[in-house]
Write a structure and sequence with these properties.
single chain; five-stranded mixed β-sheet; alpha/beta; Nucleotidyltransferase, domain 5; Dna Ligase, domain 1
């Protein structure tokens, strides 16, 4: 169904529901790298909000932003999600799904009929599978079906039509590739860390669209007080990438989202990791534009870190 809509160039908005906030965006491309934000906004909901209350917030947000479509790509967030890198040196492509099913069952400890799963294969765009002789490698995403069904039902009750579900890691990578794709190639990899209120998506982006992802959870929203925990997990991801993936060297660390303003935070991350470190706000990127009408209506609201993931979700229509 998603492929059918994409083939028809159906307008797709990105919507992210997490950490007490619903955010939504609609973007269009202008040329190879320019992105124009045409509609955007966010609204908060109470931590203990009922499903019906969240549905009402979604409806209000759609009315407030005057979204041009009800077809959406939605972000998936749950603490029980399995996000796992895999590498199979001797597996035939036809056997991949069976192998990943077993990985998901073992990790989630659930029967197969209760698991929803998908995967991203790291392979050249010109190579449908392994004609170039590369191993099957990429990452698995698996979650309990009832979590997916709950979110899809929320959107449908709000009058939206979800055709794609994505996760934070790939959403951020979508945005980075769209705006700065020339910085990632066979000789240069980038580690992108998106901080939300309670999570951090760590994604190493290499060889054009290859991804090594990891997600960590904070027990509080204050990343300024969790800097050592964050540093340890970034270091672990970089080490695993070097040992298990060993492709292009990581030459830059990019932080985005809810990055603490304290310069000492950045200094500590930079000094500990030892890579050139940058704070990146996608909506302020030189290749990003806000439509004049939207800018006049909401101003700096669309530059909020709350919008970072939904921007990437909104790019899934091409």
């Amino acid at each position: 169904m998603a492929a059918e809509f994409m083939a028809q160039k159906e307008k797709i908005a990105g919507i992210n529901i997490a950490d007490g906030v619903v955010s939504a965006t609609h973007v269009v491309r202008r040329g190879r790298k320019k992105i124009v934000l045409t509609h955007a906004g966010w609204m908060e909901y109470a931590p203990d909000a009922t499903d019906e209350e969240i549905v009402q917030v979604i409806r209000k947000l759609w009315k407030k932003t005057r979204m041009p479509t009800r077809t959406v790509c939605c972000g998936m967030h749950t603490r029980s999600m399995c996000l796992k890198y895999f590498r199979y040196p001797d597996l035939a492509p036809r056997e991949l799904q069976s192998a990943l099913n077993l990985e998901a069952e073992e990790t989630l400890q659930l029967p197969p009929d209760e698991i929803a799963l998908d995967w991203h294969l790291n392979r050249p765009k010109s190579d449908p599978y392994t004609s170039s002789g590369e191993q099957l490698h990429g990452f698995l995403v698996a979650v309990e079906k009832k979590e997916v069904n709950r979110q899809l039902n929320l959107l449908k009750r709000a009058g939206l039509y979800p055709v794609i579900t994505d996760v934070g890691s790939t959403s951020i990578c979508n945005t980075y590739l769209a705006l700065r794709g020339d910085k990632v190639n066979q000789n240069n990899a980038v580690c992108i860390v998106n901080l939300s209120r309670f999570n951090a998506d760590i994604s190493i982006l290499y060889n054009d669209h290859y991804i090594y992802p990891r997600t960590i959870i904070s027990r509080s929203s204050e990343w300024a007080t969790k800097v050592q925990y964050l540093i340890e997990n970034i270091s672990d991801a970089l080490l695993y990438y070097h040992v298990k993936v060993d492709k292009a060297p990581v030459t830059q660390l990019v932080l985005t989202g809810f990055v603490p303003d304290d310069p000492e935070f950045m200094n500590q991350v930079h000094d500990s990791i030892g890579l050139p470190t940058e704070v990146w706000t996608p909506a302020k990127d030189e290749n990003f534009q806000v439509a004049p009408k939207l800018d006049a209506e909401v101003g700096d609201e669309v530059l909020s870190p709350l919008m970072t993931v939904s921007l990437g979700l909104g790019l899934r229509d091409d």
